[in-house]
Amino acid sequence: MRLSRYFLPVLKETPAEAQIVSHRLMLRAGMIKQSAAGIYSWLPLGFKVLRKIENIVHEEQMRAGHIPIQMPTIQSADLWRESGRYEAYGDEMLRIKDRGGRDMLFTPTAEELVTDIFRSHVSSYKDLPLTLYQIQWKFRDEVRPRFGVMRGREFYMKDGYNFDLTKEDALHAYNRHLVSYLRTYERMGLQAIPMRADSGPIGGDDTHEFLVLADTGESEVFYDSAVTDLTFGDREINYDDVAQCAGVMEEFTTKYARTDETHDEALFNEVPEERRRVARGIEVGQIFYFGTKYSDAMGATVQGPDGKPVPVHMGSHGIGVSRLLGAIIEASHDDNGIIWPEGVTPFHAGIVNLKQGDEEADAACEALEAALEAAGLEPLYDDRKERAGGKFATMDLIGLPWRITVGPRGLKNGVVELTSRRTGESEELPPEAAVAKLVEIYKDHMVKGL
Ligand code: P5A
Q1: Among 53-57, 155-159, 198-202, 370-374, which is the least confidently predicted range?
Q2: Of all atoms in ligand 1, which is nearest to the CA of residue 151?
Q3: Measured between alpha carbons, how far is residue 179 from residues 74, 186, 225, 396 in Å?
Q4: 425-439: b (≥16 Cβ within 10 Å) or e
Q5: What is the average per-residue pLDDT within 331-347?
Q6: Which protein residue has the closest C-alpha to ligand 1 atom 10?
C-alpha cells in the first residue's frame, strides 16, 4: 500500500476527550471516529487490526472444534420473555418497536437465540457435544460508555455456546474454552490471566474472567504474582483430550487470582506476602458454565441414551474483540505511539523513502515493496514528499513493528536500514536480506487480513 493513496487521517493534536492512552492513540492514528457516545466508525487502519484480531479468534475457535454461525443483531423480545431476561436485563438493553408495534431488541448477548436454534434442530444426545459461536456486533446501553472502544455501547464480541449431555461434558467444554482462550490471547502478544469472577446477568456459579494487567483497567484485581510466570507457549493441545484440558485449566487457575467481586481477603493472605499483588486489569473475555438455566426455561432437551428427555447442560463464552484493540495498545505503546505485536499489526513493515523523487531511492523502495508483497507480506510505503522526521513520526505513531529506511547514502553502499519499533535498534543490510529477515520474523505470525 502506498501512503499517498491510503486513507490515514492522523491527528496532530491530542484529542481532549480521550482520557486513556489507547483511546488517544486510536484517535491520533486515525483508526476510529466516534459517531455517537460509545459508537464508532472503524477507519481503514483500525478496521485492518479489528479483522486480524477477529481472524485469530476464528482460527483458534475452529482449532478447538467450535462451529461458526451468524445470528441477527435484531431479535424478537418473545424469546427473552421465555427465559425471563426481557425485564431482568434492565436499561442496558436497547428496546425497539417495529412498525407492527412488536417488541424487538438489539442483541446484548445471544443465549436465548442460540438455545432456540438448538431446540428446533437437535433432538438426540448423539448430536452432542456441540459448540456454536459467532463474532457479531452487540449493543449494551452502558451508563458510562468511555475509554473509546474499551467500554463502548456498540461493540464486537465473539460469543460461543456449548451444549452437552452431562455436567461433566459441559465442564470439559469450559476447560476447552479456557485453554483455547489462553492460546488466542498469546497470539495477540497479550498475557491474559484467568481470574475467578462473578457471573452477573448471564448466570451460573462457575465463571472466569480473563484480565490483561493495566493501570487504566476498570477492574481491581488480586493475585499471586506466580500466575504471571505462566505462559501457554506453543504446546500441542488435543482439544478432545479431557485430562489434558483439565490439566492446563488447573495449572492456570489454582493460584490465587480474583476480581474484586469474588475477592476473599483471608484466602489471599495465605499467599506469601512478597507474591501478593493488588492491581488493575482490563477484562478481555469471560467464560461461564450455567448448567440447565436456559434449557430448563426454554425447553431445550435431547433424548438421552435411555430414551428419556433431558435438558442440555450449557455454558457461554465471550471475547471482547473490539475491546482487545484498546487492551493491546494499553499493554504495548511508548511516548511516540503504538507498538503492534507482530500477530495483529495492520501492516508488516513500513518503508520510509528519505528522498522521494530521487530516481534510485524511489526504485529501491518500489523493489522492496514488490519483494515483500511477493513474499506474502503487506508493507506500507510512505511515498509522500515529506520531511524524514515527519515520516518517522507517523510510522512511530501507527506502530508498525518494523521499518525499512531507504536513502541515497545507504544505497551507495548497497544497504537499507531495518529498525525495530519495540527496541529502536537498527541494522544496515542489503534489501534482499531485510526482506528475508522479515519473512523469518513473520513466519509464525501470518494472519489473514484485509
Ligand atoms: C459470554 C458470551 C457474555 O456476554 N454471553 C455470550 C456471555 N459475557 S460478557 O462477559 O458480558 O461479555 C464478554 C466480553 O465482551 C466484552 N465486553 C465489552 N467490550 C466493549 N464494550 C463493552 N461495553 C463490553 N461489554 C462486554 C468484554 O471483554 C467481556 O469479557
Answers
A1: 198-202
A2: 21
A3: 31, 11, 20, 34
A4: eeeebebeebbebbb
A5: 98
A6: 286
> CA Rg, the chain, in Å?
24
Report helix, strand and coil shares of the chain as percent, to nearest 5: 40, 30, 35
Gap from CA of 161 to ligand 1 centroid (Å): 14
Express each pLDDT in 81-97 by its tens digit.
999 999 999 999 999 99
Do the Cβ atoms of 429 and 413 come closer than 8 Å?
no
Q: What is the pLDDT of residues 62-85, one digit of tens each?
A: 999 999 999 999 999 999 999 999
Ligand 1 centre from 315 Cα, in Å?
14
pTM (2 d.p.): 0.97
Judge whether 190 and 212 are in contact, CB under 8 Å: yes
Distance, CA of 23 to CA of 141 (rounded, Å): 20
Please check the confidence at residue 270 and state whether its pLDDT lies above 90.
Answer: yes
Instruction: At 162, list the grid cell.
Output: 456449548
- For atom 12 of ligand 1, the residue with the nearest CA is 318
